[in-house]
Amino acid sequence: MPRHVLITGATGKTGASATATLLDHGHRVRALVHRTDGRADRLAAAGAEVVIGDLHDLDAVTRATKGIEAAYLTYPISPGLIEAAATLMLAAEENNVGAIVNMSQISARRDAASDAARQHWIAERVLDHFSGTVTHLRPTFFAEWLISFWDESTSELRLPFADARHAPIAAEDEGRVIAAILENPQPHAGKIYPLYGPVELNHHQIAEAMTRTLGRQVTYVPIGIDEFAAELERHGLAPHFVQHLTSVAVDYRNGIFAGTNDVVRTLTGADPLTVEAFIERNRQFFDGHASSNNP
C-alpha cells in the first residue's frame, strides 16, 4: 500500500537516494529542503512534493509533517542536531506520524570525544521517547569519502587512518535501507542498525581497488592527525566539523569503524556496493577530474 513519507535533507546523498527508491516503489514523498536549487528541481521532476523549511523552525516542520505516516531525519555535521531532533519529534507527535528513521553514526556514544558524535547519541536518546516507532542507523564511513578526499592533482588519498580498517558503504545503499524501513517500520521499532559495505579494507587496499578500477595509480598516504586538521582548516571547514573529523580519526584507528554485517542485504534484498562498484559508478567524476589536469 502506498505510504506518505517525509524525507528531511532530501537533497543530500542519503535523502536523495531514499527519495528515489520510495518514488520508484510508488510512494508519495514530501521532500524537505532548505532552498530551491537544481537538486530540489530534480526531486520535483521525479515526482516528489518539495517543501522549503528548516528543522529548527517548529511551524515549518509541523506543516511538513501534516498528513505524513513516516519520516526520515538526517542532519549535517554542524551544531543544532539535538534541537532539530526534538523539533521533528514534537511536530511528528502533533501530526500523529507513526515512525521516524534517524541517521546517526557508528561513533555515537555517551563518552565520544567528537562533539558531533556525542550529540548524535543524545539525539538518539531524545528520539527514544517518541510515541511512535524509532529506528537508528549507524553507518561506518561513506564510500563518498573516496570522492571528497581524493586529491585529483596527485591521485592520492591523504588521510590519518594508519592501517585500520572499515567496509565503506555507499549512500545509495543507505538510501535503500532507509526506504525499506519507512515502507514497513514496525519490525524495526527500537532497533539500532550498524551499516557497513560488503568488504572490510584498510586504505592501502582501498587505493589498490581504486587503481584496478580506474586503470591508473591511486596511492594512500597516511598522515598524522595534526596534519589532517591543518589541511581541513586550510580548506576553511568549520571548527565543529574539524573537531569531529579529527576525533573520529582516533576512533577509526581504535577500530570503532571496523566490521561488516548483512543488514543491507537482509533489509533490501540486494548486496551493498563494493569499493570497485562504487568507483565504477562514479567513474565520470574521476575521469573528468583527471582529464581536466592534462594539457
User: Roughly what is the average pLDDT, rounded to an integer?
Assistant: 96
| General shape | globular
CATH evolutionary superfamily of the domain at 4-139 and 171-195: NAD(P)-binding Rossmann-like Domain
Residues in helices, as a percent range:
40-55%
From the N-terminal CA to the C-terminal CA, the straight-line distance is: 55 Å
Order of helices and strands: EHEHEHEHEHEHEEEHEEHEHHHHH
Main beta sheet: 7 strands, parallel
CATH class of the domain at 4-139 and 171-195: Alpha Beta
| Structural class by secondary-structure content | alpha/beta
The radius of gyration computed from the alpha-carbon positions, rounded to a whole number of angstroms, is 19 Å
Could you tell me the CATH topology label of the domain at 4-139 and 171-195: Rossmann fold
Low-confidence stretches: none
Physical arrangement of strands within the biggest beta sheet: 3-2-1-4-5-6-10
Estimated share of beta-strand residues: 15-25%
